[in-house]
Amino acid sequence: MKSVLTIQSHVAYGYVGNRAAVFPLQRLGIDATAVNTVQFSNHTGYGAWTGQVFTAEHIADIVDGIAARGVLPAQDAVLSGYMGAVELGQVIVETVARVKAANPKAVYCCDPVMGDVGRGFFVRPGLPEFIRDHAVPAADLMTPNQFELEYLTDRKIATLDDALAATAALRARGPRLVLVTSLTRSDADPDSIEMLVDGTDGAWLVATPRLTFDPPPNGSGDAVAALFLAHYLTAFDPADALEKAAAAIFAIFETTRRMGTRELQLIAAQDDFVDPPRRFIATRLR
User: Fold this and answer.
1) What CATH number was assigned to the domain covering residues 3-284?
2) According to the annotation, is 263 in a ligand binding site?
3) Of all helices (H) and strands (E), which one includes residue 127?
4) Cross-strand pairs, 33
5) Sign of dihedral through CA atoms 38, 43, 45, 51?
6) Full-model pTM
7) How far apart are CA 246 and CA 230, in angstroms?
8) How far is residue 160's CA from residue 285's CA, in Å, rounded to a whole number?
9) What Pfam families does this protein's entry cite (predicted)?
10) Which among 190, 270, 257 has a CA at the least distance from the CA of 223?
11) Among 20, 27, 148, 160, which is disulfide-ready with 219 (CB 3.0 to 4.6 Å)?
């Protein structure tokens, strides 16, 4: 059984951050240890919420407590998402170093949560720069959306060649594998949305039908990162993990749209994201 230390946000209601990551990890057979960087009543997409961002000292204390139980050597990966503040980011990067010291084979999967197309940045000032300058070099696997990839590489992405140039530029700065969790380009079918994975062994692209929502559900990137990581840890096969993650998130989207809610329906879709009724084949690009 694989184990993942996941350090992300937490909401009491809804499914973003660890609430979107822990259950999929567990349902796919991964033992997930969750550290929450914030505790909010609901995700910020609603425009109003209560709760607080935890201090760096609080997170460090929790990690120290976990380490005292002797579990760091058993972690196969660290997954990070919404960091909340630069100081929290520093604790996360330091925690990754501690896990890797205890288990040199451990993988750091960084979901660089900072913004999205149409919304721009939605994190505190200084955090995008911290992720670019410190989290990227520490990561083995990055899972940016298109907006985040453009920022991290200072490149605009309009075509598939643009996207591959950007993922190559990001890999050159540290990560050996980059998953673009949502890709929209001018030279693709407008009725589809794509995911792209690019690594040292090749690059693959997968497309799924574009489903419309009003408003769209939050937390899909958090769920995709967890789904991809879970499948990647099983066989370390990027193409296989891409196909399975794409099929899983599409099944979640279909259930969410059918139920008419803006929250990802992870519970209702749990059987379908473990064994998706519809499969999507990845195309090898190189």
Assistant:
1) 3.40.1190.20
2) no
3) helix 127-130
4) 5
5) negative
6) 0.96
7) 13
8) 10
9) Phos_pyr_kin
10) 270
11) 20
